[in-house]
Amino acid sequence: WMNKNNPSANIQNPIEIRAQDWVKGNTEANVTILEYGDFQCPACATYHPLMRQIEKEYKDKVKIVYRHFPLTQIHPNAQIASLAAESAGRQNKFWEMHDMLFENQNEWAKSSNPKAIFEKYAESLGLNKETFLGDISNKEMKEKINWDLSSAISLKLSSTSSFLINGQKINN
Prior knowledge:
The protein is of the alpha+beta class and 172 residues long. The chain has helices spanning 42-57, 78-89, 94-103, 105-108, 114-124, 129-136, 139-154, and strands at residues 22-25, 31-37, 62-68, 162-165, 168-170. Strands 1-3-2-4-5 form a 5-stranded mixed sheet. Helix 2 runs antiparallel to helix 3 and helix 2 crosses helix 6 (129-136). The longest helix has 16 residues, at 42-57. It is globular.
């Protein structure tokens, strides 16, 4: 599935939006904002309200895409948070969990057991808890997150949040 020595070697066109990507807004919009984020990153949480505002103000004119870029060396709970969002996505609640993770980052970021907190979030979103917990350890979801991470590396992104507008990196 992936070249272990050079994970980005298998990424054909990293800026192309794929069926597996999380997209909201007008899918036919001429403007695409691609965000590479880490749910445990304080800067990402700071950008979150701005992204919500852009979504509200430009909803018909913009397509917003989120990809995972968990910086696990400095954010030990980033990977499990990405898996929680993906698990919620399996029950059509990705964006709701995405928002919850950023808005409540202070609650779970330093936790030694973030999974228990994510379980509570899943319950509050009306998710099937057993399915949610099963999906968190799903190999396919880990591979999807790894693909997102590899695509970020292939684009030579080094920090979160990283944004690309119509394929052009924005220096933030």
